[in-house]
Amino acid sequence: MIEMDPVIMQKAETLIEALPYIQRFNRKVIVVKYGGSAMVDENLKRQVIQDVVLLKLTGFKPIIVHGGGKEISKWVGKVGMEPHFVNGLRVTDDATMEIVEMVLNKVNKSLVQLVNELGVKAVGISGKDGMLLKCKKKYSNGEDIGYVGEVEEVNPEIIYDLLEKDFLPIICPVGYDDNFLSYNVNADDAACAIATAMKAEKLAFLTDVEGVYRDFNDKESLVSEMTLEEAQEFVSGGGLGGGMLPKLQNCIDAIHSGVSRVHILDGRIPHCLLLEIFTNKGIGTAILNSGEERYCHEEK
User: Fold this and answer.
1) Per-residue b/e over 11-39, b at no fewer than 16 CB within 10 Å?
2) What does pTM read for this prediction?
3) CA distances from 62 to 28, 45, 168 (A)
4) Dihedral pair phi/psi, residue 196, rounded to 5°
């Protein structure tokens, strides 16, 4: 047998390892909720977009739903306003809503540009386009926090049209109500609602944590994979930190609504999407429907 450079052979083995995942999820919809540090660091931003473009070119149907909270806070400060939060939710008055739309659309088009530069056609839209995200006013423990919306209805026709024409949809979470007023929607909530409406095979949350821990102070206790029932036990157990609790609840809601697998990934890790989706071991936490086989991460 001819001896080959081990580095070259390792690259070939990595590609072969990805083959069953490409076959399994070919032509399937995957929704990527893009946020956290991966939106701030320019190198990480480019790597995330490279990952999504690769997913697209290997047969997936990716959809990006992005936030922009840090950028919004920056611009609120630039115009001399003070960001105000109630129970973690941004209080959004008329002036703040105007800034929210401006900033999210700016972020949206910058992501479109990055995808286009890599040779894939992207289209950026908000939840108001095609009447995608219909909202009702969201309250925080009964307190009015302004134009903050809770997704009431998703009309995915525009997304189907874009996918059919081979575009990559990039969506910012601005919705509308019965009076067609604009509402700021939590990006996690928007991604969950869109994944549900699209009957997505996968929903991936890019975060600033490695995944779900049995004990957050023990970095060896990262849970690589859990069933829906196990996820519900984590939520009811009361041991999760405040930021992870609503995220895991979103994962549970998405799976209850028909999404097969939900992934919580550390967006600070370069090419985290590829490592989680195309390798046997993965790097984050995958939550899967009880009826799903433990196909991914089977070698753990």
Assistant:
1) eeeeeeebeebeeebeeebbbbbbbbebb
2) 0.89
3) 8, 16, 7
4) -65, -45
The alpha helices in 92-243, defined as continuous H runs, are: 94-117, 157-164, 187-197, 228-237
Tokens 């928007």 identify what position? 190
User: What does the alpha-carbon distance between residue 289 and residue 258 come to, in Å, rounded to a whole number?
Assistant: 8
Residues across the chain: 300
For residues 174-195, give the mean pLDDT: 95
Q: What is the dihedral of CA 231, 235, 237, 239, to 10 degrees?
A: 110
How many Cβ atoms sit within 10 Å of the Cβ of residue 177? Answer: 15
Q: Are the C-beta atoms of 285 and 225 separated by less than 8 Å?
A: yes
At residue 153, the 3 state secondary structure works out as strand
Helix 69-78 with 94-117: angle, nearest 10 deg? 130
What's the whole-number mean pLDDT along residues 91-107?
Answer: 93
Residue type (1 letter), 273 = L
Burial class (CB in 10 A: 0-12, 13-18, 19+), 192: buried
Q: What is the DSSP letter of 92?
A: B
**For 107-118, what is each residue's pLDDT tens digit?**
999 999 999 999
Cα(261)–Cα(274) distance, rounded to whole angstroms? 15
Model pLDDT for residues 251-298, shown as the tens digit of each residue: 888 888 888 889 998 888 888 888 888 876 678 888 887 665 554 444
d(CA 79, CA 264): 34
pLDDT tens-place string over residues 206-247:
988 888 887 777 777 788 888 888 888 888 876 666 567 777
> Hey, how many other C-beta atoms are within 10 angstroms of the C-beta on 93?
12
Please give the structure tokens belonging to residue 203. Answer: 């929903």
